Amino acid sequence: MRRLAEGKIHERISAIPNAWYPAYIIRGDEKNMMIDSGVNLLGPRYLASIKETIGDPGLLHYLFLTHSHYDHLGSASYLSRHIPGLEVGAHERLAGLLQKPSVLEMMNRLSENHVELSGQNSAEEDLTIYPFEIRFHLKQGDEFHLGGLTCLVYETPGHTKDSLAYFFPEIKTLFPGESCGVIQGEKGDLIQVEFLSSYEDYIDSLKQMILLEPEMVCIGHGLVLTGNDARDFLRCSLEETFRYRETIEAYLNEAQGDVEKAMQNMTRQEYDIKGGIFQERNAYLTNLGAQVSHIAVMQGQKVKSRNKGS
Ligand SMILES: [Fe+2]
Questions:
Q1: Is the dihedral of CA 227, 20, 293, 261 positive or negative?
Q2: pTM for the full model?
Q3: What's the CA-to-centroid distance between 146 and ligand 1, angstroms?
Q4: Cα(221) to centroid(ligand 1), Å
Q5: Per the domain annotation, does 207 fall within a domain?
Protein backbone atom coordinates (compact mmCIF):
# COMPACT_ATOMS: atom_id res chain seq x y z
CA MET A 1 0.00 0.00 0.00
CA ARG A 2 1.10 3.55 -0.56
CA ARG A 3 -0.11 6.76 1.01
CA LEU A 4 0.90 10.40 1.20
CA ALA A 5 3.53 11.24 3.80
CA GLU A 6 1.08 13.34 5.73
CA GLY A 7 -0.62 13.05 9.13
CA LYS A 8 -0.62 9.99 11.37
CA ILE A 9 0.77 7.11 9.35
CA HIS A 10 1.33 4.64 12.19
CA GLU A 11 0.42 4.58 15.85
CA ARG A 12 3.95 5.79 16.59
CA ILE A 13 4.73 7.87 13.50
CA SER A 14 3.38 11.14 12.11
CA ALA A 15 4.51 13.02 9.03
CA ILE A 16 4.40 16.83 9.23
CA PRO A 17 3.38 19.19 7.71
CA ASN A 18 3.60 18.69 3.98
CA ALA A 19 4.00 15.44 2.06
CA TRP A 20 6.61 16.87 -0.27
CA TYR A 21 8.88 18.02 2.59
CA PRO A 22 7.95 15.62 5.35
CA ALA A 23 9.51 15.57 8.76
CA TYR A 24 8.71 12.29 10.48
CA ILE A 25 8.02 12.29 14.21
CA ILE A 26 8.58 8.94 15.92
CA ARG A 27 7.10 8.57 19.37
CA GLY A 28 8.83 6.19 21.77
CA ASP A 29 7.64 5.38 25.28
CA GLU A 30 10.33 7.63 26.73
CA LYS A 31 11.72 9.80 23.96
CA ASN A 32 10.59 11.35 20.70
CA MET A 33 12.61 11.78 17.55
CA MET A 34 12.16 13.77 14.37
CA ILE A 35 13.78 12.67 11.12
CA ASP A 36 14.66 15.48 8.73
CA SER A 37 13.57 19.08 8.89
CA GLY A 38 12.65 20.02 5.31
CA VAL A 39 13.04 23.49 3.86
CA ASN A 40 13.77 26.59 5.90
CA LEU A 41 10.63 28.44 4.78
CA LEU A 42 8.51 25.80 6.53
CA GLY A 43 10.26 26.27 9.91
CA PRO A 44 7.26 27.85 11.70
CA ARG A 45 4.96 25.21 10.17
CA TYR A 46 7.15 22.38 11.49
CA LEU A 47 7.21 23.96 14.95
CA ALA A 48 3.40 24.34 14.96
CA SER A 49 2.99 20.73 13.78
CA ILE A 50 5.38 19.47 16.48
CA LYS A 51 3.16 21.18 19.07
CA GLU A 52 0.05 19.60 17.54
CA THR A 53 1.66 16.16 17.46
CA ILE A 54 3.41 15.84 20.83
CA GLY A 55 2.17 18.87 22.75
CA ASP A 56 5.21 20.48 24.34
CA PRO A 57 8.02 20.93 21.73
CA GLY A 58 10.44 20.36 24.62
CA LEU A 59 9.39 16.71 24.45
CA LEU A 60 11.12 16.40 21.11
CA HIS A 61 14.51 15.00 22.15
CA TYR A 62 16.24 14.22 18.88
CA LEU A 63 16.36 15.61 15.36
CA PHE A 64 18.26 13.22 13.08
CA LEU A 65 19.11 14.29 9.55
CA THR A 66 19.36 11.96 6.57
CA HIS A 67 21.79 14.12 4.58
CA SER A 68 23.21 17.55 3.92
CA HIS A 69 20.72 18.91 1.40
CA TYR A 70 18.92 22.19 2.02
CA ASP A 71 15.48 20.58 1.66
CA HIS A 72 16.21 18.05 4.43
CA LEU A 73 18.03 20.17 7.01
CA GLY A 74 16.48 23.55 6.11
CA SER A 75 14.64 24.14 9.37
CA ALA A 76 17.18 22.54 11.69
CA SER A 77 18.77 25.82 12.76
CA TYR A 78 15.32 27.43 13.31
CA LEU A 79 14.11 24.45 15.36
CA SER A 80 17.36 24.30 17.35
CA ARG A 81 16.84 27.95 18.29
CA HIS A 82 13.20 27.37 19.31
CA ILE A 83 13.49 24.01 21.08
CA PRO A 84 16.12 24.21 23.84
CA GLY A 85 17.55 20.79 24.56
CA LEU A 86 16.87 19.43 21.07
CA GLU A 87 19.81 17.19 20.17
CA VAL A 88 20.69 17.01 16.48
CA GLY A 89 22.32 13.95 14.95
CA ALA A 90 23.90 13.69 11.51
CA HIS A 91 26.92 12.34 9.68
CA GLU A 92 30.21 13.95 10.69
CA ARG A 93 30.67 15.29 7.14
CA LEU A 94 27.46 17.27 7.44
CA ALA A 95 28.82 19.01 10.54
CA GLY A 96 31.90 19.95 8.52
CA LEU A 97 29.84 21.35 5.64
CA LEU A 98 27.93 23.63 8.02
CA GLN A 99 31.21 25.38 8.77
CA LYS A 100 31.61 26.47 5.15
CA PRO A 101 30.06 29.87 4.36
CA SER A 102 29.87 28.97 0.65
CA VAL A 103 27.75 25.87 1.42
CA LEU A 104 25.36 27.82 3.65
CA GLU A 105 25.12 30.56 1.03
CA MET A 106 24.19 27.98 -1.61
CA MET A 107 21.60 26.34 0.66
CA ASN A 108 19.97 29.70 1.40
CA ARG A 109 20.01 30.60 -2.30
CA LEU A 110 18.38 27.31 -3.32
CA SER A 111 15.77 27.77 -0.58
CA GLU A 112 14.73 31.06 -2.16
CA ASN A 113 13.56 29.15 -5.24
CA HIS A 114 10.59 27.86 -3.24
CA VAL A 115 8.41 30.85 -3.98
CA GLU A 116 5.37 28.59 -3.50
CA LEU A 117 6.23 28.42 0.20
CA SER A 118 7.09 32.07 0.80
CA GLY A 119 3.56 32.81 2.10
CA GLN A 120 4.18 30.41 4.99
CA ASN A 121 6.19 32.96 6.93
CA SER A 122 3.48 35.48 7.83
CA ALA A 123 5.31 36.58 11.00
CA GLU A 124 8.37 37.37 8.84
CA GLU A 125 10.70 35.52 11.17
CA ASP A 126 14.36 35.05 10.30
CA LEU A 127 14.43 31.64 8.59
CA THR A 128 17.99 31.87 7.28
CA ILE A 129 19.94 28.63 7.55
CA TYR A 130 22.72 29.34 10.08
CA PRO A 131 25.24 26.83 11.42
CA PHE A 132 23.74 24.74 14.24
CA GLU A 133 25.24 22.33 16.73
CA ILE A 134 25.42 18.68 15.74
CA ARG A 135 25.32 16.85 19.08
CA PHE A 136 25.83 13.34 17.64
CA HIS A 137 28.14 12.43 14.76
CA LEU A 138 26.26 9.36 13.62
CA LYS A 139 27.84 6.31 12.05
CA GLN A 140 27.02 2.75 11.02
CA GLY A 141 25.88 0.62 13.95
CA ASP A 142 24.86 3.44 16.30
CA GLU A 143 21.72 2.71 18.32
CA PHE A 144 19.37 5.07 20.09
CA HIS A 145 16.68 3.81 22.42
CA LEU A 146 13.41 5.70 22.53
CA GLY A 147 11.56 3.26 24.81
CA GLY A 148 9.92 0.40 22.95
CA LEU A 149 11.62 1.53 19.76
CA THR A 150 15.25 1.44 18.69
CA CYS A 151 16.74 3.67 16.01
CA LEU A 152 19.53 1.86 14.16
CA VAL A 153 21.85 4.01 12.07
CA TYR A 154 23.03 2.86 8.62
CA GLU A 155 25.50 4.68 6.44
CA THR A 156 23.99 4.76 2.94
CA PRO A 157 26.26 6.93 0.76
CA GLY A 158 25.63 7.49 -2.92
CA HIS A 159 23.04 10.24 -2.94
CA THR A 160 25.52 12.22 -0.87
CA LYS A 161 28.64 11.08 0.95
CA ASP A 162 26.94 11.85 4.25
CA SER A 163 23.65 10.00 3.61
CA LEU A 164 22.24 8.02 6.50
CA ALA A 165 19.20 5.76 6.78
CA TYR A 166 17.39 5.01 10.02
CA PHE A 167 15.74 1.66 10.69
CA PHE A 168 13.44 0.78 13.58
CA PRO A 169 13.47 -3.04 13.83
CA GLU A 170 10.50 -3.32 16.24
CA ILE A 171 8.21 -1.86 13.58
CA LYS A 172 10.41 -2.80 10.58
CA THR A 173 10.29 0.77 9.38
CA LEU A 174 12.97 2.41 7.24
CA PHE A 175 13.64 6.13 6.78
CA PRO A 176 16.04 6.23 3.82
CA GLY A 177 15.96 9.97 3.05
CA GLU A 178 16.81 9.99 -0.65
CA SER A 179 19.18 7.01 -0.52
CA CYS A 180 16.80 4.94 -2.64
CA GLY A 181 15.23 7.53 -4.93
CA VAL A 182 11.90 9.29 -4.94
CA ILE A 183 8.63 8.26 -6.56
CA GLN A 184 7.56 10.69 -9.26
CA GLY A 185 5.36 10.71 -12.34
CA GLU A 186 1.78 11.83 -12.87
CA LYS A 187 0.62 8.34 -11.83
CA GLY A 188 3.39 7.75 -9.28
CA ASP A 189 4.88 5.18 -11.64
CA LEU A 190 8.38 6.59 -11.98
CA ILE A 191 11.33 6.28 -9.62
CA GLN A 192 13.66 9.24 -9.83
CA VAL A 193 17.15 7.88 -9.31
CA GLU A 194 19.10 10.04 -6.86
CA PHE A 195 22.76 9.02 -6.98
CA LEU A 196 24.89 12.15 -6.92
CA SER A 197 28.13 11.49 -5.07
CA SER A 198 28.70 7.92 -6.27
CA TYR A 199 26.83 5.48 -8.50
CA GLU A 200 28.61 2.47 -7.00
CA ASP A 201 27.97 3.53 -3.40
CA TYR A 202 24.31 4.15 -4.25
CA ILE A 203 23.98 0.59 -5.55
CA ASP A 204 25.72 -0.86 -2.46
CA SER A 205 23.49 1.21 -0.15
CA LEU A 206 20.36 -0.01 -1.91
CA LYS A 207 21.50 -3.60 -1.53
CA GLN A 208 22.14 -3.00 2.18
CA MET A 209 18.63 -1.59 2.67
CA ILE A 210 16.98 -4.42 0.70
CA LEU A 211 18.51 -6.87 3.21
CA LEU A 212 16.64 -5.11 6.03
CA GLU A 213 13.34 -6.26 4.47
CA PRO A 214 11.38 -3.27 5.75
CA GLU A 215 7.62 -3.48 6.00
CA MET A 216 7.29 0.27 5.88
CA VAL A 217 9.42 2.79 3.98
CA CYS A 218 8.98 6.47 4.77
CA ILE A 219 10.52 8.12 1.71
CA GLY A 220 12.29 11.48 1.90
CA HIS A 221 9.66 13.09 -0.30
CA GLY A 222 6.06 12.31 -1.00
CA LEU A 223 5.02 8.83 0.02
CA VAL A 224 4.99 6.17 2.68
CA LEU A 225 4.95 2.58 1.44
CA THR A 226 3.89 -0.51 3.34
CA GLY A 227 3.87 -4.29 2.77
CA ASN A 228 4.79 -5.49 -0.69
CA ASP A 229 4.98 -1.91 -1.97
CA ALA A 230 7.75 -1.22 0.55
CA ARG A 231 9.86 -4.22 -0.47
CA ASP A 232 9.12 -3.80 -4.19
CA PHE A 233 10.15 -0.15 -4.05
CA LEU A 234 13.69 -0.96 -2.93
CA ARG A 235 14.12 -3.69 -5.53
CA CYS A 236 12.59 -1.55 -8.29
CA SER A 237 14.80 1.34 -7.27
CA LEU A 238 17.87 -0.87 -7.76
CA GLU A 239 16.67 -2.01 -11.22
CA GLU A 240 15.79 1.57 -12.15
CA THR A 241 19.27 2.72 -11.14
CA PHE A 242 20.84 0.24 -13.58
CA ARG A 243 18.44 1.42 -16.29
CA TYR A 244 19.07 5.08 -15.53
CA ARG A 245 22.80 4.63 -15.99
CA GLU A 246 22.13 3.14 -19.43
CA THR A 247 19.88 6.10 -20.27
CA ILE A 248 22.59 8.59 -19.31
CA GLU A 249 25.16 6.62 -21.30
CA ALA A 250 22.88 6.73 -24.34
CA TYR A 251 22.55 10.53 -24.08
CA LEU A 252 26.32 10.84 -23.63
CA ASN A 253 26.96 8.64 -26.65
CA GLU A 254 24.45 10.61 -28.74
CA ALA A 255 26.25 13.84 -27.70
CA GLN A 256 29.63 12.23 -28.43
CA GLY A 257 30.69 12.62 -24.82
CA ASP A 258 29.73 16.30 -24.52
CA VAL A 259 28.36 16.48 -20.94
CA GLU A 260 26.61 19.84 -21.36
CA LYS A 261 24.92 18.75 -24.58
CA ALA A 262 23.86 15.43 -23.08
CA MET A 263 22.38 17.30 -20.13
CA GLN A 264 20.46 19.70 -22.35
CA ASN A 265 19.03 16.88 -24.46
CA MET A 266 18.14 14.86 -21.41
CA THR A 267 16.45 17.80 -19.66
CA ARG A 268 14.40 18.57 -22.76
CA GLN A 269 13.31 14.98 -23.24
CA GLU A 270 12.97 13.66 -19.69
CA TYR A 271 11.94 16.80 -17.75
CA ASP A 272 10.19 19.06 -20.28
CA ILE A 273 8.58 16.63 -22.72
CA LYS A 274 7.91 13.51 -20.63
CA GLY A 275 7.14 15.58 -17.52
CA GLY A 276 5.97 14.16 -14.21
CA ILE A 277 9.11 15.17 -12.30
CA PHE A 278 7.96 17.60 -9.62
CA GLN A 279 11.41 18.56 -8.42
CA GLU A 280 12.15 22.27 -8.71
CA ARG A 281 13.85 22.87 -12.09
CA ASN A 282 17.10 24.39 -10.82
CA ALA A 283 17.55 21.55 -8.34
CA TYR A 284 16.84 19.03 -11.13
CA LEU A 285 19.45 20.64 -13.39
CA THR A 286 22.05 20.76 -10.63
CA ASN A 287 21.51 17.09 -9.78
CA LEU A 288 21.42 15.97 -13.41
CA GLY A 289 24.73 17.75 -14.01
CA ALA A 290 26.31 15.80 -11.15
CA GLN A 291 24.90 12.50 -12.43
CA VAL A 292 25.87 12.93 -16.08
CA SER A 293 29.37 14.09 -15.11
CA HIS A 294 29.75 11.12 -12.78
CA ILE A 295 28.79 8.59 -15.45
CA ALA A 296 31.04 10.36 -17.98
CA VAL A 297 33.96 10.00 -15.57
CA MET A 298 33.07 6.30 -15.14
CA GLN A 299 33.30 6.01 -18.92
CA GLY A 300 36.84 7.37 -18.67
CA GLN A 301 36.17 10.93 -19.76
CA LYS A 302 37.88 13.95 -18.26
CA VAL A 303 35.16 16.25 -16.95
CA LYS A 304 35.52 19.66 -15.31
CA SER A 305 34.25 19.50 -11.72
CA ARG A 306 30.65 20.56 -11.29
CA ASN A 307 28.39 21.43 -8.43
CA LYS A 308 27.61 18.36 -6.32
CA GLY A 309 23.83 18.63 -6.41
CA SER A 310 21.09 19.46 -4.00
FE1 LIG B 1 18.85 15.17 -1.34
A1: positive
A2: 0.93
A3: 26
A4: 9
A5: yes
Q: How far apart are CA 34 and CA 89, in angstroms?
A: 10
**164 by DSSP, 3-state: which?**
strand
Same domain, 51 and 150: yes
29 C-alpha to ligand 1 centroid (Å) = 30
> What is the pLDDT tens value at each position of the chain, 310 positions in all?
999 999 999 999 999 988 989 999 999 999 999 999 999 999 999 999 999 999 999 999 999 999 999 999 999 999 999 999 999 999 999 999 999 999 999 999 988 887 777 676 677 789 999 999 999 999 999 999 999 999 999 999 999 999 999 999 999 999 999 999 999 877 778 899 999 999 999 999 999 999 999 999 999 999 999 999 998 999 999 999 999 999 999 999 999 999 999 999 999 999 999 888 888 788 889 899 999 999 999 988 776 655 555 5
Per the DSSP assignment, residues forming a β-bridge with 15 are: 7, 24
Q: What SS3 state is found at 166? A: strand
- Residue 184 CA, ligand 1 centroid: distance in Å: 15
- Position 61, amino acid: H
Domain that holds residue 106: 2-238
Taking the alpha carbons of 116, 120, 122, 127 in that order, is the dihedral positive or negative?
negative
> What's the CATH code of the domain at 64?
3.60.15.10
Q: How far is the CA of 276 from the centre of ligand 1 (A)?
A: 18
Residue 307 lies in a domain: no
